[in-house]
Design goal:
Elements (H helix, E strand, L loop, with lengths): L1 H18 L2 E14 L2 E4 L9 E3 L1 E2 L1 E13 L2 E17 L4 E20 L2 E17 L16 E11 L2 E10 L6 E4 L2 H4 L3 E6 L3 E13 L15
Antiparallel strand pairs: 1-5, 1-13, 2-3, 2-12, 4-6, 5-6, 6-7, 7-8, 8-9, 9-10, 10-13, 11-12
């Protein structure tokens, strides 16, 4: 299934590029703030089954993009590596819930005015690593999602070779419970149920166009790159 999704993404981008009026590609990076994560203790000894909500922390992302424009419409495939963190405030010390993932969004957008575009689209997500600090089961690993799909929605504005991008990334996974066993002597929590490991996030990115067909229109052939 994963190979099929990536193949369709590549085929769609290839066909669209034949009819595109303008195109550009470049690099992007920025910060993200995660939301989500819920853990409930299993009554055991001195632990009373309290529920803990994860606190948001700042993470980072970076990647590449390729944008095709058809008048006021655009198609934009991307590939991004993303580090996400939240933190559970346990009785003795906090525990970091960390997720590293690779996202491949396929975005469709529209230019609403001037340099400002809005966009939305699905993304294929591959979880590279997901751990809960202090968890003794499976070498601290937890299941962060049960489907590889998420949805992106955002707005971006271009300023010459640069773009500023703000988006919301929402996982399409369903809630799935899993047991964890946390080191009680260090965190004040023992066995617990990770009742919701899903994470959504807001991303703020700065993009730089390495090549832009519009900007290179007045140059001689072969000199479209900025470097």
């Amino acid at each position: 299934m994963n190979k099929c999704l990536l193949s369709l993404l590549f085929l769609f981008s290839s066909l669209a590029s034949v009819h595109a009026q303008e195109y550009s590609f470049g690099l992007k990076g920025g910060i993200n703030r995660a939301m989500g994560g819920e853990l409930t203790g299993i009554p055991n000894g001195g632990f009373n089954g309290d529920t803990f909500q994860a606190n948001s922390k700042i993470g980072f992302h970076g990647g590449v993009f390729f944008e095709l424009r058809f008048g006021k419409f655009l198609v934009r495939p991307e590939a991004m590596y993303n580090t996400i963190e939240t933190e559970f405030d346990f009785p003795t010390r906090p525990s970091v819930y960390a997720v590293d993932k690779l996202s491949i969004p396929l975005l469709v957008g529209y230019n609403i005015f001037g340099p400002v575009d809005i966009y939305a689209g699905p993304a294929y997500t591959n979880i590279i690593n997901s751990t809960l600090e202090g968890n003794e089961l499976n070498n601290s690993e937890v299941v962060a999602q049960n489907t590889p799909l998420s949805a992106h929605l955002g707005v971006k504005a271009g300023f010459g070779r640069f773009e500023l991008d703000l988006r919301y990334d929402r996982t399409l996974s369903s809630e799935e419970e899993q047991d964890v066993d946390i080191i009680n002597s260090q965190y004040g929590v023992n066995r617990a149920n990770f009742s919701d490991s899903r994470l959504n996030q807001i991303l703020l990115s700065l993009s730089f166009k390495l090549f832009d067909s519009k900007a290179s229109g007045g140059r001689r052939s072969g000199r479209g790159c900025y470097f």
